[in-house]
Amino acid sequence: MITVFGSLNVDYIFQVPQLPAPGETVLASNMQVLPGGKGANQAVAAARAGAKVRMVGAVGRDGLSEIALAGLLDAGVDTSAVAQSTKPTGTAAINVDAQGENAITVSSGANLDARGDSLDEKNLTPRTTVLLQMEVPMTAMADLIQRARKKGACIVWNLAPMQSVDLALLKQVDCLIVNEGELNQLHSEFHQTREPNNYSAKDVEQKAWDIFTLTRQSVVVTLGANGTLAVHNNTLLTVPALAISPVDTVGAGDAFTGAFTAALDRGETFPVALRWGNVAGGLACLETGAQSSLPTAAQISEHLAALPGA
Ligand code: RIB
What we know:
Layout lengths: L1 E4 L3 E7 L14 E7 L1 H11 L4 E8 L3 H11 L3 E8 L4 E7 L5 E6 L21 E4 L5 H13 L3 E5 L8 H4 L4 E5 H11 L10 H15 L2 E5 L5 E5 L2 E5 L12 H14 L4 H14 L13 H8 L6
Parallel strand pairs: 1-4, 1-8, 2-6, 4-5, 8-9, 9-10, 10-11
Antiparallel strand pairs: 2-3, 6-7, 11-12, 12-13
Helix pairs in contact: 1-2, 1-7, 5-6, 7-8, 8-9
The chain binds alpha-D-ribofuranose.
Alpha-D-ribofuranose binds next to strand 2, helix 1, strand 7 and helix 7.
């Protein structure tokens, strides 16, 4: 079973011709109000990919909480450990441009009151996978990671959006997932090198090795259209992306993380789990919205063969 500890938001998604520059106003052709939040998105992604999932987090005592919870309930996620806060439900303003690229601003609200201690001790066992992101307080995440480590659970941490993090904590996690920008931020936190503006695929590979050497845990780097690179068990793995024309990349990283974690949780090998993640990430870009576009296990299986290297 997967326990996701993370954010629940309501997303306000604006379709715009181009992302606004500083000081610019752009007119949106459409706006949708949909459930989101990296935690909830990944919980839904894992459930659609076939896992049993429990969500731990917090929403407000307001009308928006119903929207924030709707996708989880629809996907069969256990929401009994989602607390109610006096703060408003978290929200996100998301601009999506004509190429499907996005820019996101989050107002955390109730997510700041998310606590891992609402999770009963009996729900942390060696058969539990704990999945976290970075949209709830660091102290609460650190507390849950330490409890989960003591109980022998498998811990997957998607360091998004990246914030400063203790090396000692990273070492307690089995698998770290970052995108290219997050990898650079993480790398510069622990290595005193100047980050160039332009860097090559070799630089990405080297940085992933550096983080692996430092933490001794698996490191996964999602590279969008360039697929995924990982360092696992002292071995470099690369998996290509599904060939698609993206409509909306919101939640693509969440789709990857949820489906990848679901595959690991049911005992697939690391390389197979990466392929599940890549296919889910690609399919999630074919529709608007973070949760509405998340593929089912059957859809992922159907497209696995289309991924080069099958
Ligand atoms: O990863 C996409 C998510 O980031 C959105 O759903 C938004 O709520 C923010 O948390």
